[in-house]
Amino acid sequence: MRLWICIALLSTVLCASADRPAIVDRMIRAGQFVRDAAGGARDMYRAYRDMREANYKGADKYFHARGNYDAARRGPGGAWAARVIRWPFLLPHSDARENWQSRVSGRGAEDTRLDQEANAWGRRGGDPNRYRPKGLPSKY
To answer: Which of 13, 49, 86, 129 is deepest in the core (most CB within 10 A)?
Structure first.
């Protein structure tokens, strides 16, 4: 019981103090970064899932831009997640993605370049609707 009282008093003193130890501030920032990164990964996955669900011809650039835009708006962690996570299947490395598109899907290097342009546009905070095709349901 005394241990818990000591922990509670110590926590109160640390939280009430305006001058928290620097290590505590770094831990808080690290926690926020991780939370933002996880949220950014969810944003990217949501856009990918919506793209698969919509199955709308010519809408892939919109979903690329939207996923990156949503992730980057979360903060530094989300922006990091948007840079690291690649499409399709949320592949972690862009070379694997390019090989997949060039060899398996038959879409080629030009489509890969346009996808990367849409990714960068979204990460920079550009409006994803720039890539929205006419007729895409408003659900997306």
So the answer is: 86
Domain residue limits, the chain = 20-131
> Which of 68, 59, 110 shows the shortest CA–CA distance to 86?
68
- Cα 48 → chain centroid: 11
**Which pLDDT tens digit goes with each residue over 45-66?**
999 999 999 999 999 999 999 9
CA distance 59 to 65: 10
Chain position carrying tokens 């546009």: 121
Q: What's the whole-model pTM score? A: 0.73
Taking the C-alpha atoms of residue 57 and residue 68, their distance in angstroms, rounded to an integer, is: 20
Check residues 39 and 90 and name the one with the higher pLDDT.
Answer: 39
Model pLDDT for residues 86-133, shown as the tens digit of each residue? 765 555 444 455 555 555 555 677 888 898 899 999 999 999 999 999
List the Cα angle 62/67/73 in 5-degree steps: 120
* Cα gap 139→121, rounded to integer Å: 22
CA–CA dist 95, 108 (Å, integer)? 13
